[in-house]
Specification:
Blueprint: H1 2-38, H2 44-50, H3 54-57, H4 65-68, E1 71-77, E2 81-83, E3 86-87, E4 92-98, E5 108-117, E6 123-127, H5 143-159, H6 164-167, H7 171-181, H8 203-211, H9 213-221, H10 242-253, H11 257-280, H12 288-291
Antiparallel strand pairs: 1-4, 2-3, 4-5, 5-6
Helix pairs in contact: 1-9, 2-11, 5-7
């Protein structure tokens, strides 16, 4: 009985992934057309960011706003999708394009998130740190550069056949742990997203785990428990909210950008009309002008299970 239920759930998950893969390949050309059309609309993406869903909005610090106002493009690419039938559609690449600004020299900043499954059954997004060429002030207060330095040290140790435990003895590791422990989570710049790494799950480990997936379903039939709980984040993780923010960008803000922009403009127009009514001294009998508040925000997208 339990075996049949588990297999049905697995088949439903496969159908959901196939739907995402086919939807992406069908809509990608239109999103590229939209990107070209947006170039003629001033302040499109900075306006959209102002309307961002809570998962993003709550992570933006006051010091981030000036840099985010320089956004001229956001793109989401499911880079592991080969075609409508093949490839992992949950892996995403976020690309942010900026006009020249005082904060960093980069015109484009890219961040790849890889969908992985651990040998214990946990699945989700992991990544590698992406550097930013800061001009003057580092909005992450040094966290991003330190994460990049540690990652490079790990690559160096790996190439020399050293174990992951050896990393913990390095100066880069100790310095980053101290920095993370001394930084309040609610004060971290959203640009620290580019330093998010998540759990240490290699492509090989994930491939082996996926290969054992059917056997894991059989274990459920025999009453064996599968540990699918999320393991604790590494002590050196500078942006624990990285997966949540990446999903919000890729499955909500990016596909619904036009709706967010339109909602902002409709609200601005209503606010202007109310100001004109107030200036003329005319009072409305119906108070729904005040009840409307903000223009309706786009409906939340259904999150594809990770």
């Amino acid at each position: 009985m339990y075996d049949a239920l588990a297999r049905i759930e697995e088949q439903l998950a496969d159908i959901e992934l196939q739907y995402l893969r086919r939807t992406y390949t069908a809509t990608r050309p239109k999103f590229l057309e939209r990107a070209a059309a947006i170039q003629s609309i001033p302040d499109f993406w900075s306006t959209v960011i102002d309307e961002a869903p809570a998962e993003i909005d709550h992570r933006i610090q006051p010091r981030d706003v000036s840099a985010l106002n320089c956004l001229t493009g956001i793109d989401v690419e499911r880079f592991e999708v080969q075609d409508a039938e093949h490839g992992e559609p949950r892996s995403v690449k976020l690309t942010f394009t900026f006009k020249p600004n005082e904060w960093f020299a980069d015109e484009k900043i890219e961040k790849r998130f890889y969908w992985r499954m651990s040998k214990h059954g946990w699945s989700g997004l992991v990544s590698e740190p992406a550097s930013i060429g800061w001009k003057h002030r580092d909005l992450t207060e040094g966290l991003l550069d330190m994460a990049v330095k540690l990652w490079k040290k790990e690559q160096e140790l790996d190439s020399n056949g050293r174990s992951r435990d050896d990393v913990k003895t390095t100066a880069e590791y100790k310095a980053l742990v101290e920095k993370v422990e001394g930084t309040p989570q609610d004060a971290i710049s959203i640009f620290a997203l580019f330093g998010f790494r998540g759990h240490h799950i290699s492509a090989k480990e994930s491939e082996r785990a996926l290969g054992r997936k059917k056997a894991m379903v059989d274990n459920v039939e025999r009453g064996e428990e599968l540990d699918k709980g999320s393991p604790p984040m590494p002590d050196t993780e500078i942006y624990p909210h990285g997966e949540e923010v990446a999903v919000a960008f890729s499955e909500d803000l990016y596909p619904s950008a036009t709706q967010y922009f339109t909602a902002a403009k409709e609200r601005d127009a209503k606010d202007s009309d109310e100001e004109l009514v107030g200036d003329s001294g005319v009072s409305e009998e119906n108070d729904d002008v005040h009840d409307r508040g903000h223009a309706e925000r786009p409906n939340k997208k259904v999150k594809i299970s990770l």
